[in-house]
Amino acid sequence: MKQLSFILDNYLRGKATYGPVRRIVDILLSVSIASFLFEAFYFKYQLMDIGDYKSIINFFIKGHFIVPLLLSLLAHYVTYFIAYSFFSLSTTKKSTKWITGIVKFKLKKKDMESLTRKMNKNGVVNMPVKFEPSWIVETYLALKASV
């Protein structure tokens, strides 16, 4: 309950709540998947009475907790792998597209001269430096070399 009030407090103060909320949702998703898998492959379980200490101790001593724990870990890492794969593949595809665009880009002297003239004559914002074609070529070559 303290964690929930901490999240609410951060939200009201304008701080980010993404991390704690993401962790809570991740735990709920993993536990619900593990619960579904446990009931599908083993048996329908019932929650233990908190006052029955003997059954709780037997649950841990006899090792009955291993199966639900492993199912929870499995569900957590499988969902993590699926999300990581999806987002890494989608961002890799986009960044590869940008990199190929940078590599295939051709600078023309006429285009650079017109661009530098337009940037130097910009009436909206005064530029702190004068742009020259040589500076643009150096910047482009440095960018291309880093890619």
Largest β sheet strand count, sense and barrel closure: none
What is the radius of gyration? 29 Å
DSSP strand count: 0
Inertia-based shape: elongated
Structural class: mainly alpha
Mean pLDDT: 77
What string, H for helix and E for strand, traces the elements in order?
A: HHHHHH
Amount of beta strand = under 5%
Number of separate helices: 6
Sequence stretches where pLDDT stays below 50 over 5 or more residues: none
Helix content: over 70%
How far apart, in Å, are the first and last alpha carbons?
A: 48 Å
Task: Give the count of structural domains.
Answer: 2
Would you give an account of this structure?
The protein has 147 residues and is mainly α. The protein has two domains: 2-103, no CATH class; 105-147, no CATH class. It is built from six helices and no strands. The longest helix has 39 residues, at 66-104. The model has no long low-confidence stretch (mean pLDDT 77).
Write the layout of secondary structure elements.
Layout: H1 2-12, H2 18-41, H3 53-61, H4 66-104, H5 109-120, H6 133-146
Supply the key terms.
147 residues; mainly alpha; 74% helix; 0% strand; elongated
Quick summary:
By secondary structure, this protein is mainly alpha-helical. Helices cover 74% and strands 0% of the residues.
